[in-house]
Amino acid sequence: HILSTPYHPQTNGQTERWNSTFVTQIAKYCNTDLNNWDTFLPSIVYAYNNGIHSSTGLSPYQLAFGRRQRHPFNPHATTFVFSKPHDYWTQVIQYRTAALKQAKQHIIHQQELSKTRFDKNRSHPNFVLGDLVWTKVFVGRHKLKARYTSPARIVRILSPLSFIVEDEHLQQFQVHSNDIRRVYSRESFQT
């Protein structure tokens, strides 16, 4: 079971990206009452599984089954001739191994490009144990009310971007660095 930081969907990016793709496609075909989305789901899943993904250079079907999917509108050969009975299985394994290797190389390359683009303008927060921080309010916040709660203290560092904080009522909760702001004392502004 994978845990993600609450109110921070970026933590679970793969699932969020997948949901975004499907919701966009379903929205294109739904009627105005939005009650017939399920009739289009099989076609949308079929299209997704057969589409070439830029991150891998292959379709999900090719990665899972080691070959391109047969389409109902494309004729295919009905007979195969192999010199040995196990040749087909050997070819499938070889193709799948090569496809997975190619996909891995594409993914690593795409990740490096994404990281470079992201890091170009990224400031890296530097929080330490014991820092006082403001935490973002997510639930029940009116647009004119405060965006952050009273100060909380960082009591545990889970990763460079994820922390456990403790509020004034001694309640602990997990936060992402994007959802906290450092508390500065008046002395830090005096020169």
Global mean pLDDT: 82
Measured between the Cα atoms of the first and last residue, the distance is 50 Å
Q: What order do the helices and strands follow?
A: HHHHEEEEE
How many helical elements? 4
Radius of gyration: 25 Å
Largest sheet: 5 strands, antiparallel
Tally of distinct domains: 2
Number of strands: 5
Which term fits the overall shape?
elongated
What would you call the structural class? alpha+beta
List low-confidence stretches. none
Beta-strand share of residues = 5-15%
Report the helical percentage. Answer: 25-40%
Strand order of the largest sheet: 4-3-2-1-5
Write a brief structural summary.
With 191 residues, the chain is an alpha+beta fold. Helices cover 37% and strands 13% of the residues. It has helices at 13-29, 37-50, 60-65, 87-119, and strands spanning 132-135, 152-159, 162-166, 172-176, 180-182.
Outline the structure in words.
- A 5-stranded antiparallel beta sheet has the order 4-3-2-1-5, with no helix packed on it.
- It is built from 4 helices and 5 strands, in the order ααααβββββ.
- Helix content is 37%, strand content 13%.
- It is α+β, with helices and mostly antiparallel strands.
- The protein is elongated and about 80 Å long.
- It folds into 2 domains: 9-119, no CATH class; 132-189, SH3 type barrels, CATH 2.30.30.
- The mean pLDDT is 82.
- 5% of the residues are buried.
- The protein starts with 12 loop residues before the first helix and ends in a 9-residue tail after the last strand.
Layout of helices and strands, plus pairs?
Layout: H1 13-29, H2 37-50, H3 60-65, H4 87-119, E1 132-135, E2 152-159, E3 162-166, E4 172-176, E5 180-182
Antiparallel strand pairs: 1-2, 1-5, 2-3, 3-4
Helix pairs in contact: 1-2
